[in-house]
Write the structure tokens for this entry.
Amino acid sequence: MKRIDATGDVRQIGPLLDRREILKAGAGLVAAPILAGIPAGAQAESQTGATNTGPYRTRAYGTTSADRPIGPIEIVRRTLEAHDVLIDVLYCGICHSDIHTVHGHKSQEGSPVVPGHEIIGRVAAIGNAVTKFKVGDIAGVGCMVDSCRTCENCEADREQNCLNGTTFTYGSPDKRGTAPTTYGGYSERIVVTEHFGIRIPPGMDLAATAPLLCAAITTFSPMQHWRVEGGQRVGVIGLGGLGHMAVKLAVARKVDVTVFTTSPGKIADAKRLGAKEAVLSTDAEAMKRLANRFDLLISTVPVPYAMQPFIDLLKLDATLVNVGTLGEIPAGLSGIKMVIGRKSLAGSLIGGIAETQEVIDYCAARGIKADVEIIKPQDINRAYERVLNKDVRYRFVIDIASRGAAGA
């Protein structure tokens, strides 16, 4: 078993499970080295309030290499600072970017990847200067846990665009903690500065709220920026975790929504979610029919693809905004078509903390939530395979509090 100690080192701390236990914990997949358990003292810590300020030994789910599946490890969460909150994690969504990160992770002893940035939990302890939360509150943590807070972008509530470097929830250089990089929400506890915590209104479905902290803010923010309003026509390219939230949020604004998908099986789903029309993007006649129709297109596709056929669908002065792929966008855009129609290709990255709180409150007021499938931690590896096979409707959410019979 491996543990990350207070210096950030990975250490073997006990016997490995036998093959039968590994198969049970990994749903038939060959699992990474797995913890037998967390010391009793660490379990007791989670029951205390602000008098116990850490550091906190915490069970997490991660991997040390791209060629190893995710399995239980132990990490250390930092000592509470004055403005910090300790959160016992209840649920964490699985984002496509988690899979990209894990599959691209290079083996680096002492620096595993612990994904997860759609986190819902209960506040277990607070620093002595915290005013935003009290012990027992439900809190969320999204894609960021720190920024400089002083640059012009941060002062404009756009911490995601921090000029001095945003600290993302996992995989960023950890300026405050004990490890080289930040660890995400596939863990039983997290410590975060109160500013980067999100208040969760009473009565929300907590599991179905977790994906809002990434999937909803990522699609809500461009709708705010491009001022989407009733009577407009909005297209959503791709119907997955991001796309299904884009449809719900756009429908709530009383716009006509068209979904573009490569999956025939999602046509009916798109209409169930509220889309006025759903089109196979491989249908050349349908694409031709919809030319010059859209005020905004939101691309949620997580991999590079040819965008010119969708640029052709934009009205004069309209925009295709990419929120999905972070890779290189293929060339082949027509300069003449873009200048004649004064059409734009843009990008948007999540949203600031104030805007994230806004979308949570917006969804709470309208009963908007993600369509989720709840899984146990030992099912993470299988869930990754299903996401890659487009076999999820529409977000996996890990029930962190439930380890399952295998104790994963």
Remarks:
- DSSP finds 13 helices and 19 strands in the chain.
